[in-house]
Amino acid sequence: MIITNKLFTTITIKLGNYNEFKETIKTYNLICQEIIDYGWKHNSFNKNVLHKGTYKYLRLKYPKFSSAMLQTARDQAGEILKRTLKANKKLKHKKNKRTLSKPIKQELSSIRYDRRCLSIFFDKNILSINTVFGRMKVPLKVAKYYNKYLDWKYTNAQLILRKDNNYYINLQLNKEIPKKTNNVDVLGIDLGIKKIAVTSDNIFYKSSHLKNVKGKYQKLKRDLQSKGTKSAKRRLKILSRKENRFVRDVNHCVSKKIVNTKYNLFVLENLKHIRSNVITYNKKLNYMIGNWSFFQLQSFINYKAERLGKNVIYIKPNYTSQQCSKCSHTEKSNRNGNIFHCKKCDYELDADLNASRNIARIGRTDFLQGLVNSPNVEVDEDEVVEIQN
User: Which ranges in the chain belong to alpha helices (H)?
Assistant: First the structure.
């Protein structure tokens, strides 16, 4: 049984500084503003209303602006109006004295393009793009990292002006990846604070290095916060960005190691409400959970697995730490800190490893309903691997 899954990604390519782009963005802003003014006057963000009321007039006023680009400007103006008008309506419904002002002076530093007004030729390293001066061909220099996306299908793009006064193109790409759902090998993944992750194949991703580095950053930030000067605040922002980059790199490395294993089904717990359920814990644990980047790690595992044609599912986290992975006996006292000891069958092992095996078993049951072939998720219980991060 094979299921196709459509994947999406965005790649950014530097184009350089072109005066034609500057004039095109300037005109695009003027057109968006006129459509916004019309929609505000008629209290509507409907595309048909905006099109009928502005299209002919704008085509005559801006003859160098193509029809396709005029429609993308209309769509973007409609979205701006939709956000503003709906917010105004909500405030009035609540009888709030404060109301939103008219959405004027929308200084947009980007332009939307679709396949009608932008074409890309990776084999020739050329980008063909519409401007107010007509169709323009721009040379491309694609980074080697993006070579794996060159066979993906281009859908739409954004031309963006950045602070370095250079223009960049954001290309949205998609590709259909087949997912094989027969002969499924399941890997359960238990995420935690003391260990970044523990997988049902007996691999431990240790968090001691991560905690040490984060601890150093936290101390530096506390010292800077106590000073309260402008230079200290600037330094705080720099440190926060450095810490975020470090944690992001660790999560990238861990997720890459996990998805590159032999398994093609990864099972994770749905931890969406984990932070809202910790109010009874102590202050230190609440702080640790608040700084826990589990969602980022899950998202990395999810998109990396999808690009390899592998599957990711989420299960409820209920009782995965209290249930015995051998006899399925569930009791709160089975777990004592880092050790799991079943009160019924005396089975004993690491608590997080036990949870990961329960996650794998539950995920296998949820995923393989209706499939003929059953997967083999047996592991060697004596072989344990620890990975330091």
Answer: 19-41, 47-61, 67-93, 208-227, 230-259, 283-290, 294-307, 351-367
